[in-house]
Amino acid sequence: MRSNFEKIFGSKEGFRGFRAPGRVNLIGEHTDYHYGFVLPISINKFFYFYLKRNTENKFRVFSENFNDYFEFDYSDLIFNKEKPWVNYLMGVINEIRKIKGEIPYFDAYLYGEIPMGAGLSSSAAYEVSVAYGISEYFNLNIEKKEIAKLSQRAENNFVGAPCGIMDQFIATFGRENTALLIDTLTLDYEHIPFDIKSKELRLAVVDTKVKHSIAGEGYSTRRREGEEALKMLQKHLNINSLRELDEKAFELSQEILPSPLKERVAHVYNENKRVLNFVNDLKNNKWENLPKYMLDSHLSLKNLYEVTCEELDFLVEKALEYGAFASRMTGGGFGGSTINLVPETIIEEWIGKITTSYEKKFGFKPDILILETSNGVREV
Ligand code: GAF
């Protein structure tokens, strides 16, 4: 348990703890809210949620990261501007109330080790650890798919971020040494073996340490553009999502849509194909094909979807120049991180070169994390 626990709640007696992982996405970016395919992996950085029922008639919660305490009851379940960290917990309680009724009040201790704002999905790990923890603790028997879905609804409805399902899904279903192929339309999924150690590679995440102010707005604009493109296409085609475009329909989209909608659609169409090709080659042990899919994905996010930034583009270019096997931006973009597969033999030297060149160009160092894969949400 964490350092302040006893100071806050007196004793650890009776608390149960749960943790959910952050993620990096291998490929399939900005496709989940178009009901396409994604291929994330869960990482060994976690969000921890400890809880114990109380008799106080209120939820009492402490965040170690913010060194902050808060109490609330059911009548206070409204977005809290002063303490943004509490909204994810409130959002999940609110969604659980809708499907299971009011759960008893509890004390909670929160701790996250996933860097916030790095594009590694710390908020989804927070939501999923809380949703799963509450379900287990109070024997609510909420199915795992519903854990992911209600966590996404908490983020969409309460926190107000219009994210897709990828992050909550991988935090729930991730598995060590595998990547998770998710069909975000049907929510079917498959664990694809992804053993980078056997390929003598390391997983390096490089955090640009920037979050451009356009991030939130840019993300919702991309969603809106997708919806607009879909509406225009529906006048000619019988489709419910961009994911359903076949080759002929795609060609038509490129003829009739104005810019930038046709570029957005081109990204989604090709990115979905790249995910499936990537998975196919992974299954057939054709690792030599993977770097190109990842680079094409990055370039498409840069040129067609326009969600990269100078820092991300620079990092990908340098990563490859200094010998990475593969590299691309990962997550929502407009800052955040790149994912890199780097040969073990050069990892230290590679880290040094990336750090120096990034600092020289932007005036500060990036954060570099060497990560392992991990399992999805569970009790600790
Ligand atoms: C963010 C969102 F939360 C995901 O749902 C996904 O859309 C991703 O950006 C882009 O692929 O992480």
From TrEMBL:
Checking Pfam families in the record gives: GalKase_gal_bdg, GHMP_kinases_C, GHMP_kinases_N
Choose one Gene Ontology CC annotation of this protein and give it.
Answer: cytosol
**Record domain Galactokinase N-terminal: where:** 4-50
Q: What UniProt keywords apply to this chain's record, in alphabetical order?
A: ATP-binding, Carbohydrate metabolism, Cytoplasm, Galactose metabolism, Kinase, Magnesium, Metal-binding, Nucleotide-binding, Transferase
State the superkingdom. Bacteria
UniProt keyword annotation of ATP-binding present: yes
Residue ranges constituting the GHMP kinase C-terminal domain according to the UniProt record: 281-342
Keyword presence, Nucleotide-binding? yes
UniProt-listed PROSITE patterns: GALACTOKINASE, GHMP_KINASES_ATP
Task: Tell me the Gene Ontology biological-process terms attached to this UniProt entry.
Answer: galactose metabolic process
Q: Which GO terms describe its molecular function?
A: ATP binding; galactokinase activity; metal ion binding
InterPro entries registered for this protein in UniProt:
Galactokinase, Galactokinase_CS, GalKase_N, GHMP_kinase_C_dom, GHMP_kinase_C_sf, GHMP_kinase_N_dom, GHMP_knse_ATP-bd_CS, Mevalonate/galactokinase
Q: Where is the GHMP kinase N-terminal domain?
A: 87-174
Under Enzyme Commission nomenclature, its number is 2.7.1.6
Say which family it is in: Belongs to the GHMP kinase family. GalK subfamily.
Instruction: Please identify the protein, giving its name as recorded.
Output: Galactokinase
